[in-house]
Amino acid sequence: MDSSRLQDIRDWLVDGARSAATPSEMMAECCARLVDLGIPLWRVGVFVRTLHPDIAGRSFIWRQGAEVEMGTVAFGFESSPVYRDSPLARVFEQGAEFRADPRAPESERFPILMDLRAEGVTDYLTLPLTFIDRAVHASSWTTKSPAGFTDAHLNAIRSLMPALARYTEIITLRRTASMLLDTYVGNSAGERILGGQIRRGHTDAMDAAIWLSDLRGFTPLSDRLPAEDVVEILNHYFDCQVEPIREQGGEVLKFMGDGLLAVFPFRRRGGDPTEVCARVLAAARASRARVDALEYASGGAGERFRFGVALHVGRLLYGNIGGGNRLDFTCIGPAVNLAARLEKIAAKLNRTVVASEAFAGACPESMTDLWTDLGEFPIAGLSTEQRVFGLRDEGN
């Protein structure tokens, strides 16, 4: 075993594997370099627990002659028989190495080893990847060499663990930071914050379609139901909107009690809003259908959700606003204020979807017959009344 070449691989990992742009490329290059060094690898896996609202963990699997496969594991997997009956469970829970010969009779109690035996694997090794906070993640290493791994192979693989753990930890922390920002402030805001836009008053102008929705009757509902039930109802209600909004290119900026604020940015400043408004309207109609299909139990009977959404287009300021060291990445401006006023008008008129004249006028000509003119209404803070439109299929 060439110790200097092995040290080169360790140094490469500690230096961030700069020749590999992604974790998958790092896996492919690292394994290729180890094979060139004389270690007869067949399958290598890295398994990392994550801080994510939907995903409990991620996996990266390299196989000789194949592309690196990336996978995710949902919450609840750790209580499943597949996980409980796997060597990885021992590594995660005990932080200790595990080695087995898939051909040996005692390996039959592990389903994964039986699968590897069918592939012709002769040696299986799992090693912990321990992060600085002592959290334990895992790696697995297999070979088809008739004699399995030699002591030199095993020592070389073990010697890589500190460097591989450091690389994996850095990548995991960056992914976690990005994911948490996406979860709590939205994708575009998360990118801006990670890019250094973190000072108070740092804002950009944006041309966008604005979505502001509200759940009708939320206050009396929250008064008569247990808090846990209210939270569950809100989550189901927001599910009806978030998916259609994101599918149509929108970004949810914030939840305000039972309210939701989202924006659909134009591709470029001063760009044509026609295509954007068509997508916004598609999201609004999809959300309306989903909310209409929901029911919640109240007093032994089923009750339906009712909500309203106001749509507008305009220029807004998008950035950091707050006091002291507590900031919020949000949008402000007259266009946002008008959307908020329109939502109140929607409730007054018992309408689900209402739009400003600017939004309705920006929709494609093929959609003009979808709207009905509801008249002009006074808007607080504005000197002139504003014309409001509603979807024709909601009646007069």
* Name of the CATH superfamily of the largest domain: Nucleotide cyclase, GGDEF domain
The SS-based structural class is alpha+beta
Number of domains: 2
> Tell me, what's the shape?
elongated
Rounded radius of gyration (Å): 28 Å
Poorly predicted runs: none
Biggest sheet record? 8 strands, mixed
Terminal CA distance: 82 Å
Let me know the number of strands.
16
Report the mean per-residue pLDDT as an integer. Answer: 85
DSSP strand (E) fraction? 25-35%
Descriptive account of the structure:
There is one protein chain. With 396 residues, the chain is α+β, with helices and mostly antiparallel strands. The chain has 2 domains: 3-184, 2-Layer Sandwich (Beta-Lactamase), CATH 3.30.450.40; 199-394, Alpha-Beta Plaits, CATH 3.30.70. 40% of the residues lie in helices and 30% in strands. The chain is built from 12 helices and 16 strands. It has helices at residues 3-14, 23-36, 81-84, 87-94, 111-119, 151-185, 187-194, 218-224, 227-247, 274-292, 334-348, 357-362, and strands spanning 41-49, 55-63, 69-74, 98-100, 123-130, 136-143, 203-215, 251-256, 259-265, 295-298, 301-304, 307-323, 326-332, 353-356, 371-377, 386-391. The strands form 3 sheets. Strands 7, 8, 9, 12, 13, 14, 15 and 16 form an 8-stranded mixed β-sheet that branches. Strands 3-2-1-6-5-4 form a 6-stranded antiparallel β-sheet, sandwiched between helices. A hairpin with a 2-residue loop joins strand 12 and strand 13 (326-332). Helix 1 (3-14) runs parallel beside helix 6 (151-185) and helix 9 (227-247) packs antiparallel against helix 10. The termini are far apart.
